[in-house]
Design a protein that fits this description.
Radius of gyration: 19 Å
Shape: elongated
Strand content: under 5%
Order of helices and strands: HHHHHHEEHH
Largest sheet: 2 strands, antiparallel
Oligomer: single chain
Number of helices: 8
Number of strands: 2
Strand order of the largest sheet: 1-2
Length: about 170
């Protein structure tokens, strides 16, 4: 007996049905991919008692020569929040200060502590493992082709297809 899920999941060894795939709604599949990948990333990070805003904060604060203020952290990372609320970056900073991973000087500039640098190294290893899991069986050429197509479609509808850049936002890091 064939289940509905089995009929929706193509056999990876079957010939590619270009016409059927080309008729699929890209908005649905990009949404479904986003939901599945974010759930995997967030679940993996949660098991290590960390979240994406904390990871982003550690990266950006560490990369800034003289640290960052809370306002600078928020200004840099607001674009990365996705569906997070407006207090997310403040909460990330508060949590990292509480853990002793960040310290603020008299001017309010945040820098990583030794414990923060150690945590950042552990989280970086986690991020690399998660990336490898997500990219298993996907050659770089196919990954690059998929991004190129998505970027072209974004530009076709007047969107900004400029890739995010900065510490911890390498082209393929979660």
């Amino acid at each position: 007996m064939t289940t509905e899920r089995e009929t929706l999941t193509p056999d990876p060894d079957a010939p590619l049905d270009v016409a059927t795939l080309a008729a699929q709604p890209v908005a649905y599949w990009t949404w479904a991919a986003s939901q599945a990948l974010l759930a995997h990333i967030r679940g993996s990070m949660a098991r290590e008692d960390v979240n994406q805003p904390q990871w982003w904060t550690l990266n950006h604060v560490d990369a800034a020569e003289n640290g960052l203020t809370r306002a600078e952290v928020s200004a840099r990372l607001d674009a990365f929040r996705n569906d997070e609320n407006s207090g997310t970056m403040e909460q990330a900073v508060d949590s990292l200060l509480h853990r002793g991973w960040l310290v603020a000087d008299g001017a309010g500039r945040l820098t990583l502590t030794d414990a923060g640098r150690e945590a950042k190294a552990r989280i970086r290893a986690l991020v690399r493992r998660v990336r490898a899991e997500m990219h298993e069986g996907v050659p770089d050429e196919e990954y690059a082709a998929a991004l190129t197509v998505l970027q072209r479609m974004i530009r076709n509808v007047g969107g900004d297809a400029t890739p995010r850049t900065g510490p911890g936002t390498g082209r393929r890091q979660p």
